[in-house]
Amino acid sequence: MSALNDQQPETGQQLGLLIDLDRCIGCHACTLVCQEEHGDPQGVQRMKVPTIGSGHHDIPAGVYPDVWMYFQPRMCQHCINPPCIESCPFEAIEKRDDGVVEIIDEDCTGCNLCPPACPYGVIAINSNDMLVAICDMCSTRLDEGLQPACEDACPGDAIFFGDINGSDSVINAQKRKLPKQAYVLSGGGNKDDQPTSRYQSQKAQHQADTSILAVDG
Amino acid sequence: MATNAELSARSKVAGGTRIVQTACPMVAACLGGSCPVYAHVKDEKVVRFEPVIPSRFCAKGAVWPERIHSKDRILWPLKRVGERGSGEWERISWDEALESIAKKLNIIKDEHGHQTIAMFDRAGVAGQRFGQLLGTTMVSFIGAHGDSPVGAARATGWRNWTDPLGIPGAQQAPGGHAMEDLALNSNVIIFWAANTAETEQLQMKHLIAAQERGAKLITIDPIFTTTAAMSDQWIPAKVGTDAALALAMIAIIHDKGMVDIAYMNQHTNGPFLVRQDNGQILRASDLQGNEDSSSFMVWDESSQAAKAADEPGISPALMGSWEVEGIACCTAYQMLIDEALTFTTERAGEITGLPVEVIYQLAMDYATAEPGAIKKGWGIGRTYHAHHVERLMLTLAAMTGNLGKPGGGVSAISSFQAPPLNRKAAERLTDTVPQTVIDGLSLLAATAGEEVPELGKFPIKALIMAGMNWVGQWPGQAKTLREVLPNIELIVVHELVMSDAAKMADYVLPVTTPYEHEGVCMPGYYGNLIQHMPEVIPPVGESKSDFEIFRHLGMKMGWSEHFEDLNEAALLPKMWETVPGVSFDRIKEEKALVWEGFNPGATEEHPHVEWAEAQFRTPSGRLEFYAEECADLGDALPIYRERPRDLYALAGEQLPLSLVSYHSKFLPSATLNEVATFRDLIPGPYVTVNPLDAESRDIGEDDIVEIYNGLGSVILHARLSEGMRPGTIAVMQGWRRSSFIEGGMQELVSGNVTNPAHLKMKPLTGADPNAPLHDVWVDIRKVNT
Question: Which residue has the higher pLDDT, B751 or A64?
């Protein structure tokens, strides 16, 4: 465990997103602004919004009339112990001091060993250069003093950005303002990677499948 | 809103990219509210839209840069060289195109009459002038698209939803609360055939805010939408049975003694005496010695006599029946309750397919909400007998004291006042040929050579479609394509891409997007901003704005004195001269300015509440759920009627399945269906079928199937879902014919069916008859490949 824990940033900072599942309308605005922000070609999704339910777009699980579905924006979880870093033979992935996991484009060879290593299925392959692409928390925008593109665009006000560890951060302020059940992605049950994105909901349907969401804490 | 300093900071860091503030064009189609956007421009191409105001953005806006520079954009005028619809085109010059069109229009005018040339009320200011000079028939599109809220307009007296001969875009919207009001005040919100999460995406957060505050969200919808998924309860009433559900609710609320009698007596025509001999409301003039008074009569309990409703000091009876000078009379409310009491929860349950306890609980939830809101969508109006449902919803709101109250009401969209644009600047010319306006549902009849009341018998010979996709998005597509279009001598379509209408044209004229010419984005729907839309990039290819096309065509027609000096840039400042507190210079300077007149008096703490003063615009000044003009049709009282089936019948047999064509997150009307990015996000088109309906027809997942009825058919893939209501199938609307393997969705919908009650109500409302787009009966079969 100690070797894994070495990945924890010394600053104690962990930038991340809080996603309110009760508010997500599954519109994919985040998917598209993310694509445009990064200049990614069509089809490359660093931010996915799967329908949790039947698995098909906008089609619920269950048998009429007892059905349910919800949408779950999924992007790089910026894990405390990112399995992708271990999978990369070229040291092309690193965890920055602000907690963000980053692909070093110059070092990425496009070997594509990391996508299957990710328990959350959120490493995309750029069809132009075949290098991998993940959520980088919009570093360029952060440098300009802007919010991540997805947070800025979300018409449902479902995405919050901030330091997950910072007690005064937007994320924790929101959690205090509107307390809901907190979740993290399950990612196949491996607890060691410790995904940092936070999800929350006050509805029972989000507890329907614990292989997708796990109660946080 | 970002300051100019922030903007220039953005420009600097973006290096090589120019950033221009403009507006998203999806104002009407997304019902979102005219979102301001930053257009990023690189090498004279719009590469990206970015929100100006956080959280005012959506996927439909995000894909516009792709649309502007789509490889499908039509770049120069095209002339048909093969058979209509063959896709064989020749590139021609603007001069040749306009010359040929003008020549042909003159021939048609001389041979058949100016009335045989039809245009649509979306042609813009220059188009309107062109139509006036030519004397074209103007087609009002709203009813054919199913967007005419006939019943709600009749009950509340809303007028002026559209004005086909007025200034385009200067319209007001009928009746609704600001969603911010529901966020603050509603304790129950019933989405009744409204899919806000998908089709009014920016509004959903307000309704979720209510839910987070503890409000119960209920969705009544035959299919499980995103809104249903986000609600606390989904009530899947069968398509077209909402009136039975509403009547059962009325019966329960009445039976429980939860009726706001004071409101019903003061503000509705409930206490009005209805003559049982002819269904008309008793007037003072019906009685001896009152020949000059047209006052509506009520029964005064104090004097035990019929009195004028406006007489001071009387105590009207809400219920009861009496004989007045030998005329048997009954209050409208009594008639309503007599009707409603026949809808026991058991009977309503049978009709709607809902458990009795669900119906009972729904009525109780709404009646005890204090306050409760009904959020309706356009979908509710898209059945043949929909006017009954809209009138019943308003009656329910009135009965429970929810009308005109914060957190209550029956809201389609938030109502708003349009800026009073300078009609003089774009005024109708004098000495022009009189124009006839026909409603959208009459167009098919008119083009088929049938007699149309307003027009008489002038079979349409030429169609100019600007801002309109008659073939793609209108009902009656099969008849349009097979029987009607072959008789049209000239079809001109202004388009961005090869829409279904453009494919059938003789001349396709390439238009600009709103980013290739200067303009103003009007406030509307939920958006209170007046926004400057500068020319962000030069016109793509040889495209011209609708304004310029009509101006040049007008000059080719020989009307230079009316068009030569008609200048869009000069007209824009003039249009705003009459709007208090607003000038074009200010719009340009501020880029997005708040239109103070949008909802006068509304504030953040007290958002707009509709009918707060009960100032209904009906003849009686009250909410009129009883519509006496429909008495001879049996439609005066809002009632439940079964959906017509014979429109769709196939050789005498009744078709078993209901087809819902639902609006979705991605395809508003027939736009954006060429956007490749959306193809990544939404598979399809497909039809969703319950396995119970599929198995009996030997249909498996992803099989190719044909949906058909007596009108037409469409061939596409099947998707099986146990979440679908058995007996109902659903296809996302907005695809093109070429999206399907064969046929088209609009083939299955009748295009020339008008409910006579809609016509009876029109003089009181101006509302066009509405198309029954959701009343479609079909069957489905596997296509062996």
Answer: A64
pLDDT of residue B752: 77
Spell out the domains of chain B, with CATH numbers in brackets. Answer: 4-68 (no CATH), 78-145+439-514+540-581 (3.40.50.740), 179-414 (3.40.228.10), 657-782 (2.40.40.20)
Our CA-based measurement puts residue A70 at a distance from the nearest CA of chain B, in whole angstroms, of 7
Sign of the torsion formed by the C-alpha atoms of B220, B226, B227 and B231: positive
Q: Does B690 touch chain A (CB under 8 A)?
A: yes
Confidence of residue B132 (pLDDT cuts 50, 70, 90): very high
- Distance in angstroms (rounded) separating the CA atoms of residues B421 and B167: 8
**CB neighbours of B326 closer than 8 A, spacing ≥ 6?**
none
Chain B residues with beta carbon closer than 8 angstroms to that of A208: none
Residue A40, token pair as written in the block: 């990614």
From the CB of residue A191, how many other CB atoms can be counted at a distance below 10 Å?
Answer: 11
Torsion sign, CA atoms B355, B357, B359, B361: negative
The DSSP 8-state label assigned to residue B484 in this structure reads I
- Which one of A59, A67, A156 has the shortest CB-CB distance to B204? A156
Task: Answer yes or no: is pLDDT of A5 > 60.
Answer: no
Distance CA B454, CA B627 (A): 23
Least confidently predicted of A156-165, B68-77, B147-156, B206-215: B147-156
CA dihedral A140, A143, A144, A150 (to 10 degrees): 50
The total of other beta-carbon atoms located within 10 Å of residue B739's CB is 17
Cis ω for the linkage preceding B668 (within 30 of 0): no
- Alpha-carbon distance of B706 to B687, in angstroms, equals 10
Residue B314 pLDDT more than 90?
yes
- Given an 8 Å threshold on Cβ–Cβ distance, is B201 in contact with A27? yes
Mean of per-residue pLDDT scores for chain B:
91
State which amino acid sits at residue A167: S
- 60-99 in B: which are within 8 Å (CB) of A? 62-63, 65
Please give, rounded to a whole number of angstroms, the shortest distance from the CA of A10 to a CA of chain B. 30
User: Is the CB of residue A157 less than 8 Å away from at least one CB of chain B?
Assistant: yes
Q: Which residues of B579-596 are buried (b: 16+ CB within 10 A; e: fewer)?
A: beebebeebeebbbbebe
Beta-bridge partner residues of B372: B188
Domain count, chain A: 1
Q: Which of A22, A24, A27 to mutate to test the interface with B (most CBs of B within 10 A)?
A: A27
From residue A178, alpha-carbon distances to A173, B213, B218 in Å are 9, 10, 22
C-beta separation of B369 from B239 below 8 A: no
Chain B residues 210-229 with a CB less than 8 Å from chain A: 211-212, 224, 226, 229
pLDDT tens per residue, range B94-121: 999 999 999 999 999 999 999 999 999 8
Measured between beta carbons, which residues in chain B are less than 8 angstroms from residue A58?
226, 664-665
Q: Do B723 and A54 touch (CB under 8 A)?
A: yes
B230: CB partners within 8 A, 6+ apart: A22, A25, A70, B197, B204, B208, B211, B217
pLDDT for B545 beyond 80? yes
pTM, two decimal places = 0.95
Kindly state the average pLDDT of the residues A117-128: 93
Tell me which DSSP letter residue A173 carries: H
Mutation target among B204, B216, B675, B679 for the A interface, most CBs of A within 10 A: B204
Angle, CA of A80, A82 and A85, to the nearest 5°: 135
Give the pairing of strands A181-185 and A198-201. antiparallel
- The CATH number linked to A47 is 3.30.70.20
Nearest residue of B to residue A33, measured between CA atoms: B62
pLDDT on residue B548: 96
Which positions in chain B touch A152 (Cβ < 8 Å)? 50-51, 54-55, 57
